[in-house]
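Because showing beats explaining, we think one record worth quoting, sequence and backbone structure tokens together, and here it is:
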Amino acid sequence: MDSIVRRSAVSCLITVSLLFSSGCSKEATNSSGADTGKKVVRISIGTQDQTINTVTGGSVIREGKLLEKYLPKTGKYANTEYKIEWSSYTSAPPLTNKMLANQIDIGMMADFPSTINITTFQKKGNGVKTKYIATLAYSPNGAGNAVVVPKDSPYKTLQDLKGKMISVPFGSSAHGMILKSLKDAGIDPQKDVTLVSQSPEVGGSSLQKSQIDAHADFVPYGELFPFRGFARKILDGAQAGTPTFHGVVVRSDFAEANPEIVVAYLKAVLEANKLFREQPEVVASNIQKWSGIEKEVVYMFLGPSGIQKLDPRIQSYQLTALKNSVTTLKQIGKLDASVNPDDVATWADDSYLKQATKELGVSEAELGTLADQNVIGGKDALTQEPITEPKLAAQVWVKGEDKVVNFASIKNMVTALDKLKKEGKTPSVVFVHDRTNGWKLFAEKSFYVQNGDEVTAFLLEPDAQAFAEKAGTKVADFNGLQTLYAQSAQPAAIAAK
């Protein structure tokens, strides 16, 4: 501890020109330059506003001033003035660079960038490390990462991409996903395809100009590009079956000097999660204003039965994701061979989260229950029957309306769409769910099988074909499904949600 104190003191002296360093303080002055007697503490937080898995650690806290609500104001903080600095980045590498330069104290990033962040500090941190202290959003099977092609592309599977050019942000979770998926498909990433590094922005532009054959990316671009109409998804990261997450890392010197502030930040995360569960449409609409990512895509990922779970706990899923990232990053030469995947458990420190939940009176078990119960429920807007099976449910968000409307079945949703059309109303988005895995899907881009009165949706056409063969029926696209039911649908009033 003495060595930490000495390092912190030296750091304060060296970085005073940067105003304040982690754990350092300075006496505040008023406009006339007089000393106010207050200690000023800098809290610098780096997020990724467009990477919507970070929003409950970033923009929701920032715009709602939730951190200010929980910052300590007694004891050693009784005469403290907080200087909260927010910055947003389109990817994690610059965030890590600024953390290393002691310009950011708390950062948010996915599993692969977190691995690079933590191992970089181990080498270059001069005794300072970074700790993984909480999860923001995660998928136990990799949903959120995806491979997309230009909308008019003839390619439908990874096998079609042999000999083609695929872009991906190198060192990202999507990079790991595409490498594993290619190998699983019997494609050698070194010989059978050309992989090039492109950021989401560049990859999107390249897709629109048909300068690449496919683009692999992380949240939210695998859904955002198809929603914007210039791309089509051919592989979902969930098919790789490996966990992925976005989480919070913090500089160890800042956390050790200001544990109460770290706890306050995690309390703000817990409140941001609560806001999303209770008002998903409102929060999604706000995030559209703050990030430019359409509310429908935000809701798709983090709303009820969303693609990713909002659960702050550090679980086996996250440790597995970190282990996978170590293995893959070593394979592609982005990580020193000496890094042991079994060491990742030592990178995690959930003591701050445990303290935050204790002070808020919430148990860790409750956090898991809240995440698991964030699924579609209530009553069907058409029939008023209870919605008991989220995987078979459907949702419609009508343009100009504040609330998403829920249906117990795809059949009821299609019937309701016909009536909405006659009333001159237009849906901005329609959601269904993959029958097997429950993944949230865009209805118009899914495949359907009718088996008696039941209609189920699938992400992948081969899965739908296999199910249809067993049922002795055929696969339909969304237009075909609407035509089928429009002929027999009876007008019905859609009740308020």
The domain at 146-240 is CATH 3.40.190.10 (D-Maltodextrin-Binding Protein; domain 2). Confidence is low (pLDDT under 50) at residues 1-22, 489-497. Residues 201 and 288 are 17 Å apart (CA to CA).
